[in-house]
From TrEMBL:
Keywords: Isomerase, Metal-binding. PROSITE patterns: VOC (PS51819). It is an enzyme of class 5 (isomerase). It comes from Phaeodactylibacter luteus. The keyword Secreted does not apply. It comes from the Bacteria. It holds the Pfam family Glyoxalase_4. Residues 2-130 form the VOC domain. Its EC number is 5.1.99.1. This is Methylmalonyl-CoA epimerase. One of its GO terms (molecular function) is metal ion binding. Belongs to the methylmalonyl-CoA epimerase family. GO terms for biological process: L-methylmalonyl-CoA metabolic process.
């Protein structure tokens, strides 16, 4: 449906919030921890899209491993979808490798699923759908 957000892996959410507030000329609007992913996130609204900063809360998290291997930088690109289950099935039928069998709860009241970077020109793609009452 649209580019939902760009995820940026950072070492320090506090330092990066300050940097992005200066860069974008506005404050972040939310900080949220996703305990299941061992990450703390911060969101900046830019038009109809967002920038999500991600800081690891455990050395075993995917973000900690990403930063250790590649340094800070763009981690993923997220696209909003109307029906995440249907989109996952469509992508599987097109030959994409998904990192999740089923969508899971992510930050910002979303159901999420990731497409393996090897299936998408080296880019980690996130599909996200707003959580609806019946899925909550």
């Amino acid at each position: 449906m649209r580019l939902e957000h760009i995820g940026i892996a950072v070492r320090s959410l506090e330092d990066s919030n300050e940097l992005f507030e200066k860069l974008l000329g506005r404050p972040h609007y939310k900080i949220e921890e996703v305990a299941s992913e061992y990450v703390k996130t911060s969101f900046f609204k830019i038009g109809e899209s967002k920038v999500e900063l991600l800081e690891a809360t455990s050395p075993d998290s995917a973000i900690a491993k990403y930063v250790a291997k590649r340094g800070e930088g763009i981690h993923h690109v997220a696209f909003e979808v109307e029906d995440i289950h249907a989109e996952m099935e469509r992508l599987r039928s097109e030959g994409f490798t998904l990192l999740n069998e089923q969508p899971k709860r992510g930050a910002d009241n979303k159901l999420v699923c990731f497409v393996h970077p090897k299936s998408a020109n080296g880019v980690l793609i996130e599909l996200c759908q707003e959580v609806r009452e019946e899925e909550g």
